[in-house]
From TrEMBL:
EC class name: hydrolase
Record key words, sorted: Cytoplasm, GTP-binding, Hydrolase, Metal-binding, Nucleotide-binding, Ribosome biogenesis, RNA-binding, rRNA-binding, Zinc
Primary location class: cytoplasm
Subunit structure: Monomer. Associates with 30S ribosomal subunit, binds 16S rRNA.
Entry's EC annotation: 3.6.1.-
Family: Belongs to the TRAFAC class YlqF/YawG GTPase family. RsgA subfamily.
Name of the protein this chain belongs to: Small ribosomal subunit biogenesis GTPase RsgA
GO cellular component: cytoplasm
Any Pfam family the entry gives: RsgA_GTPase
Residues of the EngC GTPase domain: 112-257
HAMAP family: GTPase_RsgA (MF_01820)
Length: 356
């Protein structure tokens, strides 16, 4: 792209400017990371789109960065990643999630500085409420506002009922049916200038089609487009930040087969299951596990039909998973420390020193 972007159009504000002052004095350029590849990333700046090399500090899509322009003929280099306001952190792929916002690898932080998390769940063949809850936990944990989009709404057989079921599974989040195909339901999804959304959801949910519908002009290849030119089923393979025509920014992500929770998902789960948390206040025991305890208000709500049993089952499942991740994190930490000490002891024996 030849022309530049305006920083406010990319989501810049006074706080970012303050973060940037430490880097601005020596002719550095502020920009927003649109895409990350091995060793280089695409950064949107007032001077246009730049290819920027990075080293040990790995940026992720959505990051605000300081770029150092090299001598003519050399590639710009990443100088620093500015502090992240929000971060979508995916668990279950190595360590580093403990620190949340500063997760230590690009594979870990899916997107940064996002205002809204759009959770795309297709109306057909079926809506998977458990998957929505899992993504809601991730979204609440990120610090951004989750919004559930029932995509391919044109294929729904009983939309009002579906809407009710999804709304019950998403307390505190707005739920909107959308059809990119028919162009309906898009208004509440449109973003004001400078606001950033990330789209999460399974492969085939219609995320790329929705990005195109919001953009007004095709910015993404979709499965259909590719199928037509004989190149088979296209799937999004990388995360990318798109600047929409009407303002607003959206990050498309590949449909992840499995999004694990991080080991510190407790807060996100509490918000995802705010209805269960509220009921739990009336359980006889303060530490009620809502399993088989007498005087359990949650089980009573399931019994009376106020709380779908599916939801309690989902709560148990995700809580177990988060607890397991936490245990695994601790086990890894211990193993790492043991390894470190083994090396130190070996070195001590070798040098005859008895202190590290
Ligand atoms: N009926 C209907 N089909 C849609 C709609 N949106 C997308 N589709 C179709 O669903 C299929 C998948 O759409 P994509 O946008 O590629 O899905 P995706 O979520 O980006 O998939 P990945 O890139 O694999 O993550 C395509 O064949 C689209 O034409 C819609 O609103 N209604
Ligand atoms: Zn209980």
């Amino acid at each position: 792209m030849a022309s530049g972007f305006t920083l406010p159009g990319l989501g810049w504000d006074g706080g970012r400017a303050a973060d940037f002052t430490a880097h601005s004095d020596s002719g550095r350029l502020a920009g927003r990371v649109a895409r990350v590849d091995k060793s280089a990333c695409t950064v949107l700046t007032e001077q246009g789109e730049l290819r920027v090399e990075y080293g040990d500090e790995v940026p992720c899509v959505g990051d605000w960065v300081a770029v150092r322009l090299g001598a003519p003929g050399t590639d710009p280099r990443l100088d620093a990643v500015l502090p992240r306001r929000t971060a979508i952190v995916r668990g279950g792929v190595g360590r580093g999630s403990r620190s949340g916002l500063s997760g230590d690898s690009s594979g870990h932080v899916l997107a940064a500085n996002v205002d809204v998390v759009y959770i795309a769940e297709p109306a057909a063949p079926e809506c998977d409420l458990g998957r929505i809850e899992r993504l809601l936990a991730l979204a609440w944990e990120s610090g951004a506002q989750p919004v559930v989009l029932i995509t391919k709404a044109d294929l729904a057989t009983a939309l009002p009922e579906l809407l009710d079921a999804v709304t019950a599974a998403a307390p505190g989040a707005d739920v909107h049916p959308v059809s990119s195909l028919e162009g309906t339901g898009l208004e509440p999804v449109r973003l004001p200038a400078g606001r950033t959304a990330v789209l999460l959801g399974p492969s085939g949910a219609g995320k790329s089609t929705l990005v195109n519908a919001l953009a007004g002009a095709p910015v993404m290849d979709t499965q259909q487009v590719r199928a037509a030119d004989g190149r088979g089923r296209h799937t999004t393979t990388h995360r990318e930040l798109h600047v929409l025509d009407g303002g607003g920014l959206v990050i498309d992500t590949p449909g992840l087969r499995r999004i694990g929770l991080t080991d510190d998902a407790a807060e996100g789960l509490a918000q995802t299951f705010a209805d269960i948390e509220e009921l739990a206040a009336d359980c006889r025991f303060a530490d009620c596990a809502h399993d088989a305890e007498p005087g359990c208000a949650v089980l009573a709500a399931v019994e009376s039909g106020d709380l779908p049993e599916r939801r309690l089952v989902s709560w148990h499942k995700l809580r177990r998973e988060a607890a397991w991740m936490a245990g695994r994190g601790d086990a890894r930490l211990r193993a790492e420390q043991t390894r470190k000490w083994k090396v130190i002891h070996k070195e001590m024996r070798r040098t005859g020193r008895n202190r590290p």
